[in-house]
Amino acid sequence: MIRPLIAALLSLAWACSAVAQGLSGPSSVESELEPGDGLSDPQYRSDFPQNVTPRWFRWKNQLAENGFRFNVDYLALGQASNADLGTGEAASGIARFYGTWQAAERGSLTFKIENRHSYTDVAPQFLGLDGGALSITGTAFNDTGLLLTNLFWTQRSEDGGWTLQVGQIDVTDFVDVYGLVSPYSGFQNLAFNTNPTINAPNQGLGIAGGLKLGSNLYAVASVADANADPSDPSFDVFSDGNLFKSLELGYTSGFDRIYFDNIHLTIWHADAAEDGSRPEDYGAAFSAAWFVDNQWMPFFRAGASKGTAALYERSVSAGVGYYGRNTDLAGLGLNWANARGIDGDQFTLEAFYRFSVSPGLQITPSVQYIVDPLLDPTQSSVALIGLRTRIVF
User: Cα-atom radius of gyration of the chain, to the nearest Å?
Assistant: First the structure.
């Protein structure tokens, strides 16, 4: 079963000679190395921290001219909740070192090393759960320690028609992405990141390919380790046979706007764990987002799954993002969801405003409001306020 899956993926990746999307969503290393969210001519209020460490940035630019680009950044998130249960507060940080090395004309090596740590007993990722809501309120801000989240080779065709990645990959970099998907620069709640009905694995060994099927159509497929643990990378994935598989078919206005103007359908399947810790799961997700006048990004996203391992069995999200002056970004999203084995429906509202002080400094206050929290029906609602900062060197 495994070999035919890998062979089919390789055939998909090598089959076409047009322009592919590059497997680089907003949270990928490739995208985060480009300031300004991929917008043309981004404007900022300041050039901090470049103006206080000019030698460092001149050295980085010299390395970039020779094909080696990297960033060192630090993100921190603090949240407070009015929930009747739990601690009511959470804070954590993420230190990251990531980059790419253009080792060949059409091949490159991508890496990312992270240290995720919590300042409080409960990390923001779990503050909603701690307060009685079935909700990941601080995606990626946990206490998992030192992680190898990317170490893969990318190969592209001469005309850009296909892209292939092999190595330590993060499927959430390219599975079911849209312009506001990144928890580092956009929404914080998982309801508005990668679809919460998708049982996406942690970062681990895998292979992924993307290609163009027409002037506006593309396909992306992946096979990855369903049991991945980036704190202890394993290379015995395909012999074990516990895999996550995905296939996405999409439409875009142009391949330079792949996650700005995007409509796609994603289907996925995750094998059951051999030790019984995770049942088999599968489902489908739909996403539509379009960048209007290079300012407004309305979106609609929905998903359904067998519901045995993913956070939600069914989920529908809608909202809008607005890019203002100085590449500021405002976002407003509303989600409805239910979960297997739990009666009732849960509604989540999130609003945020990201102040882009400079290419290297962002400050993002946010509000989340969860109605009818599924894990504690005695509460009618739970509210959270948050503050996220990011500094890039």
Answer: 20
Q: What is the pLDDT of residues 171-186, one digit of tens each?
A: 999 999 999 999 999 9
Paired tokens of 185: 């620069």
The CATH number of the domain holding residue 386 is 2.40.160.10
Q: Do 117 and 92 form a contact (C-beta atoms < 8 A)?
A: yes
Phi, psi (rounded to 5 degrees) for 308: -85, -25
Contact 227, 235 (CB under 8 A): no
* Strand blocks (E) in 119-189: 145-156, 162-169
Residue for token digits 């506006």?
216
**Which pLDDT tens digit goes with each residue over 105-157?**
899 999 999 999 999 999 999 999 999 999 999 999 999 999 999 999 999 98
Dmax (CA) for the chain in angstroms is 60
DSSP letter at 335? Answer: E
State residue 274's pLDDT score.
78
Give CA–CA dist 199/185, Å, rounded: 22
User: How many domains are contained in the chain?
Assistant: 1
∠ CA(66), CA(71), CA(74), 5° rounding? Answer: 170
CB 381 within 8 A of CB 44: no
Do 135 and 189 meet the contact criterion of CB atoms below 8 Å apart? Answer: yes
pTM over 0.85: yes
Q: Which of 156, 158, 120, 150 is nearest to 138 (CA)?
A: 120
| Structure token digits, residue 25 | 């969503």
Which token pair is 201?
């694995």
Shortest CA distance to 260 belongs to which of 13, 8, 37, 16? 37
Cα separation, 28 vs 40, in Å, equals: 19
